[in-house]
């Protein structure tokens, strides 16, 4: 089964919490703090596997979670970091954010990896907070949560040349005659269900990748049949070989077939209307109606289009067509790649100022969110005066108190940080 689209949920690991611990040895009954830091959470990383041709594996498993960082321990022992999870995808896979449908990454480079969900940082142990005046900090910092998101994986085959045309016009035969690909070939009156790729090797280091795009039918641009699934794979090709059956064996009008395919390409994506094409008249060894064949040639000439006449079954004209295809490719720009539309690094900064927090009014509450404030708030021990004092100084030094006052907060108003709520006193 060929699968070229999948929706999955990914979750990076949470960072481990810092430890609250004290040095306790014989003859040292009141040693200093020695709590270690928590380990970092594992990340979710996407990697190109050139041996993969399908997203089928993601149809059966839809949730992927990286390892959680271990908590810190005494004697300054840092918690073990969580294991990354690496997801292999076929070359040419687009990773989209499921909520916005914007592109996060284009996995076209065979050497490329992309961190799509980053693991949370480990928290600090209490030994980190020891100073000359604070010798016994009875608090530590919690680890930060790992990123999570739903993503859509969409495979768009990477090929220099795409073979397009109605079903049963000889595209699969042409691919098998020019490459080592082995598509299923028969006198089908329905379309091939899976795209096939092959490398055309002309010798002298001249080669290109050609894809047999499953036969397009009328209405494909509107999603009829598997239209969208097939048309998607044409978007990255640089050149199209438009294969037309001119034999009249099936009593089809080759001019009408040619126009229908181009109409479907244009309606799916206006850029495809301008994509360079080479017109290929196939099955010239079994022509039944010479008048229909000649009318097709005359019409293409009238439109200023060069026609290559071949017989894919016998090989007649195929070598000349492949050489012409290679020559045309040298004039064209590289395969299309997509720039990310979502900047994950920018998203990881809560706001452009880099404050690490954001304050909003929700009802009668002042709600403070952000990676920094949640990490600090999660580390407070409310029955410890030093912990509370550290928390208050952190809010004051970071500008949180000043911003709350500028927003008009009054004594007694409720401030919420995560699950923590308290009255504002100043």
Short structural summary:
This protein has 426 residues and is an alpha/beta fold.
Describe the protein's architecture and organization.
The protein is α/β, with parallel strands linked by helices. The protein has helices spanning 57-60, 171-178, 227-231, 254-268, 270-273, 290-302, 318-329, 344-347, 371-377, 385-398, 400-406; strands at 5-11, 44-49, 63-65, 85-90, 93-97, 103-107, 113-117, 148-155, 161-164, 196-203, 206-212, 239-245, 277-282, 307-309, 358-362, 365-369, 414-417, 420-423. The strands form four sheets. A six-stranded mixed β-sheet has the order 10-11-9-12-13-14, sandwiched between helices. Strands 3-1-8-5-6 form a five-stranded mixed β-sheet, with no helix packed on it. Strands 15-16-17-18 form a four-stranded mixed β-sheet.
Walk across the major sheet and give the strand order.
10-11-9-12-13-14
- Helix-strand string: EEHEEEEEEEHEEHEHHEHEHHEEHHHEE
Range of strand content: 15-25%
Give helix % range.
Answer: 10-25%
Biggest pleated sheet: 6 strands, mixed
**Which structural class should the secondary elements be placed in?**
alpha/beta
């Amino acid at each position: 089964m060929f699968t070229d689209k999948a929706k999955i949920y990914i979750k990076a690991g949470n960072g481990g919490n810092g430890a609250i611990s004290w040095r306790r040895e014989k003859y040292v009954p009141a040693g200093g703090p020695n709590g270690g830091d928590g380990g970092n959470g594992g990340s979710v990383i996407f990697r190109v596997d050139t041996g993969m041709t399908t997203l089928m594996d993601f149809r059966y498993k839809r949730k992927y979670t990286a390892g959680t960082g271990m908590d810190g321990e005494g004697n300054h022992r840092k918690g073990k970091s969580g294991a990354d999870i690496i997801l292999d995808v076929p070359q040419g896979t687009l990773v989209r954010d499921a909520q916005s449908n914007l592109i996060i990454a284009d996995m076209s480079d065979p050497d490329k990896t992309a961190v799509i969900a980053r693991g949370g940082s480990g928290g600090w142990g209490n030994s980190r907070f020891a100073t000359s005046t604070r010798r016994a900090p009875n608090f530590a910092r919690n680890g930060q949560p790992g990123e999570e998101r739903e993503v859509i994986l969409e495979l768009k085959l990477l090929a220099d040349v795409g073979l397009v045309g109605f079903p049963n016009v000889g595209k699969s035969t042409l691919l098998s005659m020019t490459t080592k690909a082995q598509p299923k070939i028969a006198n089908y009156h329905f379309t091939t269900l899976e795209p096939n790729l092959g490398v055309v090797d002309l010798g002298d280091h001249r080669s290109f990748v050609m894809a047999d795009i499953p036969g397009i039918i009328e209405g494909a641009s509107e999603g009829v049949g598997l239209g969208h699934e097939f048309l998607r794979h044409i978007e990255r090709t640089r050149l199209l070989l438009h294969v037309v059956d001119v034999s009249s064996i099936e009593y089809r009008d080759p001019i009408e077939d040619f126009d229908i395919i181009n109409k479907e390409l244009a309606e799916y994506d206006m850029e495809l209307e301008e994509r360079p094409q080479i017109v290929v008249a196939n099955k010239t060894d079994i022509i039944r109606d010479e008048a229909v064949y000649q009318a097709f040639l005359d019409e293409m000439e009238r439109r200023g289009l060069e026609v290559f006449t071949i017989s894919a079954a016998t090989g007649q004209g195929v070598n000349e067509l492949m050489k012409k295809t290679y020559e045309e490719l040298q004039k064209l720009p590289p395969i299309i790649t997509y720039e990310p539309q979502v900047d994950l690094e920018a998203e990881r900064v809560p706001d452009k100022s880099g404050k690490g927090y954001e304050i909003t009014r929700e009802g009668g509450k002042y709600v403070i969110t952000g990676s920094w404030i949640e990490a600090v708030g999660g580390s407070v021990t409310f029955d410890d005066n030093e912990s509370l004092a550290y928390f208050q100084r952190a809010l004051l030094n970071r500008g949180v108190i000043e911003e709350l006052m500028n927003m008009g907060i009054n004594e007694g108003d409720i401030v919420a940080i995560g699950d923590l709520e308290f009255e504002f006193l100043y």
